């Protein structure tokens, strides 16, 4: 028997399988995904490798084929389905097979089990009483104390006995030698989720929720689950629908994975699931210890849990009978990996579901354009929730033109309207959230008099302001000198926006000295529990105003919040990124959705220097479909996803001259790949940050309607890079349909 093995070395030249003979003593003990030790190279250095296939015949001279040395110590096998998924990821996103295997490999090695020692009485109660009388006569107080405890309970925890009864190990040993008790060791799984005693209240579903559940259940029972987009306004009860779908999957003996965008959302989400599924739920996130991660994966593998909740990496939970993958807030950018392979959880989940015969549910109040376009093309099925569960009205939204505030002489970051509404809420003892949309902070130039923004004439993205008086496009490299008066209206009020959450907090404290204010941003949430602490004190109404960046507008439910103020709504509109309008729309809808979730009606105030922009107007009306129609016109015109596909090729090197030369030749080569296919090439240009940790950076963009044309281009570019020694000192990564600009 021969095994095809991928060697654990990340290098393009070794990105292929090597054949090894399986020794007789290991036959039958190895499987696809097993980690083994093999001799490699001229010096037969022992390396780790992964088996990705077997064959009975060798394609080389059997006498020259080396033999597997043995299993890798403490290794955990990768499930065969996950090996198939890794192969798809390598093909679909680039990188090497070993990088893909390590991505789908949830735990790298066995961890020491957590053990519990139990003391059990082995004598009858009658014999125990005789021994107790003997110990008391001999004044052996410690032995008597231990036996008294064991006469009350036949078995006790070893650690508890030593702590509570003040005993030493020698006392336990003495009674063990007398055969009065035994000490047994049991392995216990570390469980990061504490089961809740609280029971889930019976849910009354709305007509729309019932319909979404019915459609999914019918498809699942027919053995034909598909991919669904659960498009529901904020507060429409998407989580309850997920849980009902998961219930039906679990009752049929299968398991579910629930992906959520950020660790911060896990606590609230997990508790809702624990009330329904008890200790059959677990979580996976970066805050778990190696031992906890290992135990969760083993519990999943052994069928001891039914539901795994976590961010992107939870997608690779080794469930044997996976039935459903839910991706909550599917529009979030955190579902895209920043490491090679740069996979997207949405596409990867759909492929894993295809391999395992499972369903996928994507949920969002503001779906990504890709997901909504997928419904239009018939790839996904659309399930709508247009009403809030308790029939509360959506927040009333007003858009304030900050240019007019400037004309009135108000140079503050707060409009007169928002200031009055905050005063009113404070009098009524209701809570306020102020959201500072800081993405792209100080990155672009805008006119405060007329709202004009300086854009690239070639790419329809804003030019980024750089120190030294230059404005640069990070897509094509176009640049022009800094301007000091607005080309549209001649106003001198043109420049980069300068305000952070701290300045806003200082201003609010000054304007409303009687208000209790909390601030939530990267600086105030560095501690492990700080996130929970701030949110729970605001939920307990210990503060009147919560100021924060986008982390405060995601998924939180505060019934007493009746006013949300969005400061500088258009800041995220002009980051140098073709998805800027989509992100702005999603953030504004999420922000407005935080108001009026309880019994009191809600209001949102959106402040903008460009109030007529279609994304701000559509967000004020909470009209996703109007936004989608308008945005897709631009995407189609410019050939950006989802109208077409985009591949970014990021090149980095310590040697700037070499990098420029390499980027030039790679572009030349790319231009020769498919001249017939209409492959469009942009760049190479320097990204927003042209140098990181002494590494210079260049990026090349390739556009085409057909994804396969781009994967073919990627394969040919990889071959070209491999055979040209000049690229040895340049690191090159491929990113398909990137969600973050470089």
UniProtKB/TrEMBL annotation:
PANTHER family: PRIMOSOMAL PROTEIN N. Coiled coil: none annotated. It comes from Sellimonas catena. Its cofactor is Zn(2+). Zn(2+) 1 binds at residues 447, 450, 486, 489. One of its GO terms (biological process) is DNA replication initiation. It catalyses: Couples ATP hydrolysis with the unwinding of duplex DNA by translocating in the 3'-5' direction; ATP + H2O = ADP + phosphate + H(+). Its EC number is 5.6.2.4. This is Replication restart protein PriA. It is an enzyme of class 5 (isomerase). It comes from the Bacteria. Keywords: ATP-binding, DNA replication, DNA-binding, Helicase, Hydrolase, Isomerase, Metal-binding, Nucleotide-binding, Primosome, Zinc. Initiates the restart of stalled replication forks, which reloads the replicative helicase on sites other than the origin of replication. Recognizes and binds to abandoned replication forks and remodels them to uncover a helicase loading site. Promotes assembly of the primosome at these replication forks. Binds 2 zinc ions per subunit. Residues 219-385 form the Helicase ATP-binding domain. Zn(2+) 2 binds at residues 456, 459, 473, 476. GO terms for molecular function: 3'-5' DNA helicase activity; ATP binding; DNA binding; hydrolase activity; zinc ion binding.
């Amino acid at each position: 028997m021969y095994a095809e093995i991928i060697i654990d070395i990340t290098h393009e030249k070794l990105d292929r399988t090597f054949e090894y003979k399986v020794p007789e003593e290991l036959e039958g003990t190895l499987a696809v995904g097993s980690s083994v030790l093999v001799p490699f190279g001229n010096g037969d250095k022992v390396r780790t490798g992964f088996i990705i296939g077997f064959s009975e015949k060798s394609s080389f001279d059997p006498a020259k084929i080396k033999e597997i040395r043995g299993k890798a110590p403490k290794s955990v096998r990768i499930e065969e389905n996950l090996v198939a998924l890794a192969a798809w990821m390598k093909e679909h996103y680039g990188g090497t097979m070993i990088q893909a295997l390590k991505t789908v490999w949830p735990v790298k090695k066995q961890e020491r089990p957590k053990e519990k020692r139990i003391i059990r009485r082995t004598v009858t109660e009658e014999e125990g009483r005789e021994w107790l009388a003997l110990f008391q006569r001999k004044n052996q107080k410690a032995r008597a104390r231990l036996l008294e405890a064991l006469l009350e309970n036949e078995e006790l925890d070893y650690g508890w006995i030593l702590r509570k009864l003040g005993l030493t190990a020698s006392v336990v040993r003495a009674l063990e030698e007398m055969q009065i008790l035994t000490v047994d060791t049991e392995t216990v799984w570390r469980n990061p989720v504490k089961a809740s005693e609280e029971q889930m209240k019976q849910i009354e579903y709305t007509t729309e929720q019932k319909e979404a559940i019915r459609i999914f259940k019918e498809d699942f029972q027919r053995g034909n689950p598909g991919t669904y987009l659960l498009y529901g306004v904020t507060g429409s009860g998407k989580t309850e629908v997920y849980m009902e779908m998961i219930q039906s999957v679990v009752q049929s003996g299968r398991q579910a994975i629930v992906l959520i965008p950020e660790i911060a959302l896990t606590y609230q989400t997990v508790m809702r699931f624990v009330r329904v599924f008890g200790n059959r739920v677990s979580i996976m996130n970066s805050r778990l210890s190696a031992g906890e991660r290992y135990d969760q994966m083993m519990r999943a593998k052994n069928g001891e849990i039914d539901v795994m909740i976590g961010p992107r990496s939870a997608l690779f939970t080794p469930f044997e009978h996976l039935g459903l993958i839910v991706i909550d807030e599917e529009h979030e950018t955190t579902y895209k990996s920043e490491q090679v392979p740069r996979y997207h959880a949405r596409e990867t989940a759909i492929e894993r579901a295809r391999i395992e015969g499972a369903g996928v549910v994507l949920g969002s109040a503001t779906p990504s354009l890709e997901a909504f376009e997928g419904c239009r093309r018939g790839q996904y099925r659309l399930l709508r929730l247009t009403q809030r569960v308790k029939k509360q009205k959506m927040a009333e939204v007003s858009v304030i033109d900050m240019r007019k505030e400037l004309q009135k002489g108000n140079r503050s970051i707060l409009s007169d309207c928002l200031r009055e509404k905050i005063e009113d809420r404070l009098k009524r003892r209701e809570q306020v959230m102020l959201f500072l949309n800081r993405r792209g902070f100080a990155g672009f130039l805008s006119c405060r008099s007329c709202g004009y923004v300086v854009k690239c004439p070639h790419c329809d993205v804003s030019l980024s302001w750089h120190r030294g008086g230059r404005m640069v496009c990070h897509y094509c490299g176009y640049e022009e000198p800094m301007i000091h008066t607005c080309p549209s209206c001649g106003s001198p009020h043109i420049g980069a926006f300068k305000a952070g959450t701290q300045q806003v907090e200082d201003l609010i404290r000054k304007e409303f000295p009687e208000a209790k204010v909390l601030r939530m941003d990267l600086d105030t949430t560095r501690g492990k529990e700080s996130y929970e602490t701030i949110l729970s004190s605001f939920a307990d109404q210990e503060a009147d105003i919560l100021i924060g960046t986008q982390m405060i507008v995601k998924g939180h439910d505060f019934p007493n919040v009746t006013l949300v103020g969005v400061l500088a709504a258009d800041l995220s509109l002009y980051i140098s990124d073709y998805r800027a309008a989509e992100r702005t729309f999603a953030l504004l809808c999420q922000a407005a959705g935080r108001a009026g979730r309880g019994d009191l009606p809600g209001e949102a105030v959106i402040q903008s220097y460009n109030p007529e922009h279609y994304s701000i107007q559509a967000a004020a009306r909470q009209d996703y479909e109007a936004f989608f129609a308008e945005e897709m016109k631009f995407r189609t015109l410019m050939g950006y996803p989802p109208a077409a596909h985009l591949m970014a090729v990021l090149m980095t090197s310590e040697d700037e001259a070499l990098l420029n030369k390499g980027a030039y030749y790679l572009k030349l080569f790319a231009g020769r790949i498919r001249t017939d296919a209409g492959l469009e090439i942009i760049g190479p240009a320097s990204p927003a940050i042209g140098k990181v940790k002494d590494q210079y950076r260049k990026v090349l963009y390739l556009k085409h309607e057909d994804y396969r044309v781009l994967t073919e281009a990627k394969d040919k570019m990889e071959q070209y890079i491999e055979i040209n020694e000049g690229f040895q000192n340049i690191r090159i990564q491929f990113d398909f349909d990137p969600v973050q600009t470089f």
